[in-house]
Amino acid sequence: MQNITFNNGNTMPQLGLGVFRVENDDTAKNAVKHAIINGYRSIDAALVYANEEMVGQGIQEGIAAAGIQREDLFITSKLWLNHYGKDNVQEGYETSLSNLGLDYLDLYLIHWPGTNESLMLETWEGMEVLYNEGKVKNIGVSNFTIEQLELLEAKTTIKPVINQVEFHPYFTQESLRNYLASASIQMESWSPLMNAEILTDETINAIADETGKSPAQIVIRWNIEHGVVTIPKSVTPHRIEENINVFDFSLTEAQINRIDALNQDKRIGPNPTEFNG
User: Fold this and answer.
1) Which residue ranges does the record assign to the NADP-dependent oxidoreductase domain (predicted)?
2) Residue 108: enclosing H or E segment and its boundaries?
């Protein structure tokens, strides 16, 4: 597993398991457990996914089954909008810790910027308090635009280590990617497989045939070639195994360019400048 290094010197696995839209039952528990047994060391959760309890059980069972320690894992969760505001952040954080059955998180994100800039800034101040008090290892944001990140940097003290955003071959966000690189903020992609929509693309399938890999592996590898952290979601054991098996091959520059050329500026999620929960 490859790691990336944050602007604060800490590291994170470049590939992890996403659990968005996974039921809070044995489905979530078994997916997380299976992922950990098969080499995943990063799990991306969120309070609003309403499945942290079973994700947490999967983490505990995965740790036991894989013979590893909690410190070997990198666990992310996210603050939802009902806990925004400086004085509410700690309650949101502790709720996720309790749900997950953990003593700390490796990464805590503001899930969406929201449409109230002053509230967003106050919320980040609450995130800074958590970080400065040593309660969380790293803090970052999700779904932030360049303008929102520039405002954050101008008005606050600690720079986010990461921005988790929509990123896939139909929505390559080149300007945001370039900005994040220049600002030393890591980019992370949610729903990199577009809820499986991208897997039927002709170009992706042609490159899969050329390399002897699956379409999903091609897209995940494309993320990695761009230096993006990625968290494909699956609850199917063989797909969980397949999705992590992307470190034994590379895409050529020509293949990367062909995938880049698929961009349509097509979102499958909300526009961050308009979404407020």
Assistant:
1) 15-263
2) strand 107-110
